[in-house]
Amino acid sequence: MSLWHEISVNDMDGFAIGNAEYEEAGTGCTVILPKGRCVCGQSVSGGAPASRESALLNPLAANDNVNAVLLSGGSAFGLNAASGVVKYLEERGIGFPTSSGPVPIVCASCIFDLGVGRADIRPDEALGYQACLNAGNYKDGNHGAGTGASVGKLLGPDHMTKSGIGSFALQLGDLKIGAVVSVNAAGNVLGTDGKDMAGVRNEDGSVMSGVDAMCLALSPRQMENTTICAVMTNASFDKTACTKIAHMADDGYARALNPVHTMYDGDTIYVMSSGDVRADLNLVGTLSALAVSEAIRNAARHAEDAYGIPAMRK
């Protein structure tokens, strides 16, 4: 019996999560809004990230507080959705204080979903703003930043599996940790037993080994993947500690994705600390990796067939 117990990610103290999507176009975004001061760190392990304000998360940078993290579809085009989050925050006087007024600090990362639905419609300022208005409506599956997500693309689109956005949260005493992940990996999703549960499909619909698929991939589809994640905790940490926790949480990717961190992925994890619970960094990093791996699996479990892409067999 575990000492921790599972909770809903919507029960995370100090955070509100909102999805918005252009369903017909096969894309969307998910915003994580802290309800107060929030320190953030980051780990980037993939070779093709599309991101905003990443340099600010370096522990050597001056600002410790972020006002939102946005996970989005649309590849680099989807970074425009962060402008809608900025607008939403500015209207409410939220941001880094300056002599000219508050400047909202919004970090963002995007997946490549342009090959699903319509490539000419991407998350934009209006959708980012709508995601903020929707804060509190979060659910797993073909929603938000997971609307156009898929996995198992090493052998091309005819063999891939529909994925989505997934979450997992847990509580240990007063400590809460939650993860939200948009899973758009080149490789496969692995179950807790290490077996391939979703990804590169054989002709009969079964899942091919991710390693075997990599061996067969003569020219893997480049720069068209990426798994992006936000980890939230009510524990109190500085930016250096959040950065270390993000690197530990990255182990959750390795447990639930294979291959992982390729040059065709832009794998990124944000760790957001908004609270005053005292907790050991090593414990939070270990539990964060657990939350990330389970959130990845939930993204595959809750995905539904869409855009001609079959989801995993339930």
What does this 3D model show about the protein?
With 314 residues, this protein is of the alpha+beta class. It has helices at 81-91, 125-133, 210-216, 239-249, 251-256, 281-301; strands at residues 5-7, 15-22, 27-34, 39-44, 51-52, 68-72, 106-110, 150-151, 161-162, 165-172, 175-184, 188-190, 196-198, 226-235, 257-258, 268-277. The strands form four sheets. Strands 1-10-11-14-16-4 form a six-stranded mixed β-sheet. A five-stranded mixed β-sheet has the order 2-3-6-7-5, covered by helices on one side. Strands 13-12-15 form a three-stranded antiparallel β-sheet. β2 (15-22) and β3 form a beta hairpin.
Task: Please give a handful of descriptors for the protein shown.
six-stranded mixed β-sheet; alpha+beta; 16 strands; 6 helices; about 325 residues; five-stranded mixed β-sheet
Summarize this, please?
The chain is α+β, with helices and mostly antiparallel strands and 314 residues long.
Layout of strands and helices, then pairs:
Elements lengths: L4 E3 L7 E8 L4 E8 L4 E6 L6 E2 L15 E5 L8 H11 L14 E5 L14 H9 L16 E2 L9 E2 L2 E8 L2 E10 L3 E3 L5 E3 L11 H7 L9 E10 L3 H11 L1 H6 E2 L9 E10 L3 H21 L13
Parallel strand pairs: 6-7, 14-16
Antiparallel strand pairs: 1-10, 2-3, 3-6, 4-16, 5-7, 8-9, 10-11, 11-14, 12-13, 12-15
User: How many helical stretches?
Assistant: 6
| Low-pLDDT stretches | none
What is the mean predicted local confidence, pLDDT? 93
Q: Structural class of the helix and strand makeup?
A: alpha+beta
- Widest sheet: strand ordering: 1-10-11-14-16-4
Radius of gyration: 18 Å
Biggest sheet architecture? 6 strands, mixed
Helix-strand sequence? EEEEEEHEHEEEEEEHEHHEEH
Question: How large is the share of residues in beta strands?
Answer: 25-35%
Question: Which descriptor suits the 3D outline?
Answer: globular
**Beta strand count:** 16
Kindly report how far apart the N and C termini lie. Answer: 26 Å
Helix amount: 10-25%
